[in-house]
Amino acid sequence: MTATSALGGRPLTIVVAAALLALEGLAGLAYAVFEVGQIRMSRAEVGVGVAILMAGFGLLLLLVARGVFLGRRWSRGPAVATQLILLPIAWSFRGGATTWVSVALAALAIAVLVGVLHPRSTAVFVGPPADKTQP
Predict the structure, then answer these.
(1) pTM for the full model?
(2) DSSP string covering 17-81
């Protein structure tokens, strides 16, 4: 029995990866809004820059999540790249009071990587193999 979702017969691996990517995108947007509220005149450039960067990152992840959910081939590369960037960020939070952040970020990144790189997901992204017997 294959693990497919009720959402258009998509593999559960793609649905979970897309949902987690969307969650990351929403977290990026939430952090951008938070950063706007923290802007002070003494560091206005930094605050505005971080807010714009995180808003762009959040929107990009939401776009990638939509692409992954729809099985668009272009979305797989950015999904993998963002998770590979997230792993060293998770490593930087290890130790002390932020260990839970490290574990959560690493688990999230690994779950998305597994979901996007799983053979069932690959079949959706790449499509059926070409029939080489036809002229």
Answers:
(1) 0.86
(2) HHHHHHHHHHHHHHHHHHHHHT--GGGHHHHHHHHHHHHHHHHHHHHHHHHHHHT-GGGHHHHHH
